[in-house]
Amino acid sequence: MLKLSPVLKWASDLVQKVKPTSLDKTKNKLAGKVALLTGGASGIGYSIAKSFLKNGLSALTIADIHKINGTEAIKDLTLQFGEDKVMFVECDVAKTNELDWTFQQTLKHFTRLDIVINNAGIMNDAAWENEIHTNIGGCLTGTLLGLQYMSTTSRGKGGVIINTASIIGLIPCNGFPIHTLTQHGIVGFSRALGGHYKRTGVKVICICPALTQSPLIETAHKNTLNRYFAKTFCKEVEGCYLQHPDAVGDGLVKIINKAKPGSIWFVENNDHPHEIRFPKFVDMINEKLT
Ligand SMILES: NC(=O)c1ccc[n+]([C@@H]2O[C@H](COP(=O)([O-])OP(=O)(O)OC[C@H]3O[C@@H](n4cnc5c(N)ncnc54)[C@H](O)[C@@H]3O)[C@@H](O)[C@H]2O)c1
């Protein structure tokens, strides 16, 4: 029986448990690979950086808008994993030219690119234009650039693109309708690109963490459309457990090889990732009104 936090119990029919034994445990599966990670200066992104490097990743670019946190993250990762493995590029993912520059710098510095993780995001419906440009724009541009640089149909040798969405990409959050829009968008976009793998050699997958300790979630209640939405949000998350961000980083390492193109994964309660099983379209249609 799956154990889900209270807010998620009603969505349990979407979640398919993947047995721990069937998860990929091979160490060094990332050896020789180079990754570009957005929003890696903090929270979930920083944990993804740590997990990937711990599991053999050869080199990593962290692209983040926060220069101080980014520089600090690089210092910590260099201490843990050695010199010349990580590079920081100050970048606003909402700006195509800055993100493209980050891709170019990665290829120039590390000479190859195999994995792109579009993880930068904000939860701020009060600043919804920026939220849309960062969450949807950043993921969209990062994915298109990932395809441009890695697709076998252009200049690349294939690769993996991982988009970070959220549980709020699977079920609506009434306190955050605009954040819901951005996260549902990322899920649909990633699913739609699954069908292009054979042609491009680039596997697009999506990870949907449940509530996870990070500055984003800890300040979210201050960033709603107004105080009514804040109240609704506080009720929705009341009693919910905040998992450790390492669960997302470690979870991604477990699924990166075995995940099917276009598949959507859910990480909750510091547990192994679950694949999301979407209902068949016929089962979604209600009886016809007469
Ligand atoms: N924390 C949660 O409960 C939770 C749950 C599900 C999904 N997520 C998603 O996980 C991702 C990471 O969030 P987090 O919780 O680790 O938050 P976080 O605030 O700790 O990290 C987000 C990072 O993105 C960076 N960033 C923000 N805007 C940017 C921009 N325009 N350009 C470049 N970098 C930018 C920030 O500087 C920060 O380093 C987000 O996409 C978020 O929506 C978080």
TrEMBL record:
InterPro entries: NAD(P)-bd_dom_sf (IPR036291), SDR_fam (IPR002347). Pfam families: adh_short (PF00106). Coiled coil: none annotated. It comes from Henosepilachna vigintioctopunctata. This is Alcohol dehydrogenase. It comes from the Eukaryota. SUPFAM superfamilies: NAD(P)-binding Rossmann-fold domains. Keywords: Oxidoreductase.
